[in-house]
Design goal:
Layout: H1 4-11, E1 15-16, H2 21-29, E2 40-44, E3 52-56, E4 63-70, E5 75-82, H3 87-92, H4 97-104, E6 108-109, E7 115-116, E8 121-126, E9 129-141, E10 144-148, E11 156-157
Antiparallel strand pairs: 1-5, 2-3, 3-4, 4-5, 6-8, 7-8, 8-9, 9-10, 9-11
Length: about 160
């Protein structure tokens, strides 16, 4: 059975025609189930920092939030994340980047307010878990922003 994080990873970067978007989201859920239910609901979101919400039609099912860009060719999924509560996230606190990189590399983000250009340091957050952060380095090279995290950097709980 598919895990919800696999669904999220599959959606990221998806490019589809507008008329195929709902069907492709349902296909991405594949054999994912919540409490034995697999019927997927996709809703348009208004006034949020995401455009759609997808979830299995069951009470208390975790949701997938989808941010898209509409183009002349169709829809591109810019980002997707979930509010699924996983013990794995709590267990990541105190682990090194090397230990979690494979699972978390597609979910990193850096806000400019968390960048110290002078020192070259930054706080790296995770789109799939709001309470985890890690320290990284920031630099600009040939009009590109490069964020690096050392393999021995430690994941920490940013809730204080």
């Amino acid at each position: 059975m598919k895990k919800l994080m696999e669904v999220v990873k599959e959606m990221k970067g998806m490019e589809v025609a507008v008329e195929d978007f709902e069907n492709e989201v349902i296909i991405a859920f594949g054999d994912y189930e919540f409490n034995g239910i697999s019927e997927v609901v996709l809703e348009k979101s208004m006034g949020q920092n995401y455009d759609y919400t997808a979830y299995v039609n069951e009470k208390n099912a975790p949701e997938v939030f989808i941010s898209v860009e509409k183009t002349d060719e169709g829809i591109i999924v810019l980002d997707a994340w979930t509010n699924e509560k996983e013990e794995n996230f709590e267990k990541m606190i105190g682990k090194t980047w090397a230990e979690v990189k494979e699972d978390m590399i597609d979910s990193i983000t850096v806000e400019m307010e968390n960048v110290d250009v002078k020192s070259g340091s930054c706080i790296v957050d995770f789109t799939n878990c709001s309470f985890l952060s890690i320290m990284g380095t920031y630099r600009e090279e040939n009009d590109e922003v490069i964020i690096e995290v050392a393999d021995n950097a430690i994941i920490y709980d940013n809730r204080g």
